[in-house]
Structures are given as structure tokens and as C-alpha cells.
Amino acid sequence: MTPHTEIFNDLLKLAVDSGVSDVVIKTNKPGYVRLAGKLKPVDMDPITGEEAKAWVDEHVPRVFKPLWEENNQVDFAYATEGIGRFRVNAFYQRGTVSVVLRHIKSKVPEFDELGLNGEPLLNLAKSKDGILLICGATGSGKSSTMAAMLNWINRNLDRHIVTIEDPIEYTFVDDKSVFQQREIGTDVPNFDLAIKAVLRQNPDIILIGEMRDRETFETAISAAETGHLVFSTMHAATVAQSLTRLFEFFPPEQLAQARRQIAGSLRGFICQKLIPTIEGEGRVPATEVMAADQTVKNLILEGENEKIQGLLNGGTDSASHSFNRDIMRLIKEGKISKADGVRYSPNPQALEMNLKGIFFK
Questions:
Q1: Which residue numbers delimit the Bacterial type II secretion system protein E domain (predicted)?
Q2: CA–CA separation, 180 vs 332, rounded Å?
Q3: Nearest-5° Cα angle at 359, 354 to 361
Q4: Among 226, 271, 219, which residue's Cα sits nearest to residue 245?
């Protein structure tokens, strides 16, 4: 083992043993770890620029080396026996190499383990076709929630599931379903080739790691319209913002067609954020879920997206709920404090009223 790999592995082992989610490495600084959302330095010697660059040069997959050399940034997966698997982003800043690694837990999570309200998520997971989007900021637990939904499908339904991931985060063991997990750079050279091939691979369910552009979304719509269920993620904070992001894929002259396609194919949004637990030793997800029923589809067709948030805020349908309703649940179950609930609420004034039993549409 090379000296720089030994330094990195020692740091990663410490991180995994401590339950850390992310490791941040900056040239001429000690390693930093993110524990329960807080960034802390590690008591170790600074990592030199030569050590950081040598580690990336050694472990970046061969197919990604040109990207690293030409673009000065690259994403890839790193696995080491006895420690675990990590999602890596390496990049230059101010002429020196930095690396951020996220620990990918090997065990596929269950709803209860994540602290999720499983009922509305199961209702969406049972969809026969259409598009399901799991949304939130980076590090909000989107991949874990999506994995928990696919894990339930794997144990209960006979489906052929093809995933396109960059990189693979959770590895599934076939149960009632059969998984084909394709990693960009390892199993297929690039995302575009994987997307173009996926409909020829006879899937029932397709997982697209991220809804990144119009071409990807149009492929998802095509798959949904031909009887497939498509899971994907997007960077958006709320249901309202998620809908706005979808329409941004289309030029103005195609918005009428986009409304028809989205209304026809969308099955629902799950937006989430992580809130510190009341004990202060971890975080628990709060979700906003919108099941695309006929009322929602009609509002999308009519271009009245702004009214959808009102439905979530005032509704009592178990298939959908606002962030405030889920934050209320977490407060009442004693999982988070009222102060943190209000702090993380997208509408704290409304939450204060909701906690008093007052709801407005």
C-alpha cells in the first residue's frame, strides 16, 4: 500500500468507526469530518498537496483520467476492504487538490431505520408506471429514501429494476426482484449511452441517479408513457420548487406540451430535509409528499402550479402532506425540538399556527 493511500485509509476508517457521513480533505490542512451535520477537524498531520494528488491519480478509474486531467475535477467511487465504499469528488481549488468523500453504507435502509413516515412513500412505491422524484439539497438523504423504497419493492414485488448511477450508492441483493446496477465509468462510459440503452433492457423500473437535463427528463417521460416506473432525484427544496425546476427543462414555446406530458406521467414528489434529533446526536428526515391525483394533474394542465402548495398546506389526505405536517409529527413524537422544527420549517409562522390546531389553505 502506498503511503498516501495508507493516510487516506486511516482517516476513512476513523470516519466510518465514528459514524461520519462525509470527509473533507484540503491541501495542507488536517482532514475534516461531518458528524450529525457539523464539520470538525481531525487530530492528524496536514495532508500535503502531493499526497492528495497522488491519491486521486492512483485511484481515479482509467476511463475518468482524461476528465481529471482536462477538467481538474472528477467524480468516482472508491472502495477499500474492511472499511467501506465512498463516493468521491476530487477538484482543484487555488491550484491545489481537494477531495470530498461520502461514506456509502452497505446495508440498504428500511423506512423505520430512517425515521420516515412510510405510508405515503409506500403508496407511491406501489405505482405501476410514471415518474417519482425524490428531491432535496445535497446531503438531505434522498438516496437513502429512494433505496428504502426500492428495498420494499425488492422484498414484495417481482420486478426487473435497472439503475443508472454515478456512482452506485447502495448495492441490492435480488429477492423477489432482479436488479441490474450500472455505474457510469465502470459499466458504461457515460450517462448519455446508459440512458439511450435503458429502454432496450426490458426493465419494469428504472432508477436514474439524477434528473440532470431535458434529454434525461424526456427519456423518463418516454419510459413512463410506455408502462415503466421511473425513480430519480432532483435538487429542489419543496414541491413547488420541484415543479418549477421541471418546467425549466422546456423552452417557453413548448410549455403547453410540457404541461400535458408532466400531468400525464408524474406520480409524485418526495421532498426532504434532515433536522437534528432532540438528543443532538443525529438527524431525522422531514418530508413533503405530493401524490399526483386528478386534482393535482388538472392544476398542472391549467398552469396553476402555485395552488398545489395550498392543497398540501390545508389538506388531510394521508397520501400527501406538507413539510409542516411532517415536522409537527416529529415534534409530537419527541424526535425533534419545537425550536428546531420552527427553524427548519419553510413557513415557520404557519407552523406556529398549525401547532395550535389552526390550518389555512
A1: 199-213
A2: 41
A3: 135
A4: 271
Q: Is 341 exposed, middle or buried (0-12, 13-18, 19+ CB in 10 A)?
A: buried
* CA 300 – CA 312 distance, rounded (Å): 15
Contacts of 6 (CB under 8 A, 6+ apart): none
> In Å, what is the CA distance from 110 to each residue of 113, 116, 151, 275?
5, 9, 7, 19
Tens digit of each residue's pLDDT (9 = 90 or more) over 145-173: 999 999 999 999 999 999 999 888 888 99
Q: Fill in the amino acid letter for 337.
A: S
Helix (H, G, I), strand (E, B) or coil at 125: helix
Cβ atoms of residues 204 and 160 within 8 Å:
yes
Q: How many CB atoms sit inside 10 A of residue 226's CB?
A: 9
Distance of CA 79 to the CA centre of its chain: 20
List, edge to edge, every strand of the sheet that includes 205-208.
Answer: 178-183, 160-165, 205-208, 229-234, 130-135, 266-276, 283-291
The percent helix, strand, coil of the chain (3-state, each to 5) is 40, 25, 35
From CA 8, how far away is CA 59, in angstroms rounded? 11
**What is the reported pTM?**
0.84
Give the closest residue to 74 by CA, choosing from 55, 58, 61, 93: 61
> Residue 283's beta-bridge partner residues?
276
SS3 271: strand
pLDDT in tens, 265-309: 999 999 999 999 998 778 899 999 999 999 999 999 998 888 888
Q: Which three cell numbers stand for residue 5?
A: 493511500
Distance of alpha carbon 57 from alpha carbon 192, whole angstroms: 25
- Tell me the C-alpha to C-alpha distance, in Å, between residue 61 and each of 164, 225, 351: 17, 36, 48
**Whole-angstrom Cα distance, residue 79 to residue 63?**
17
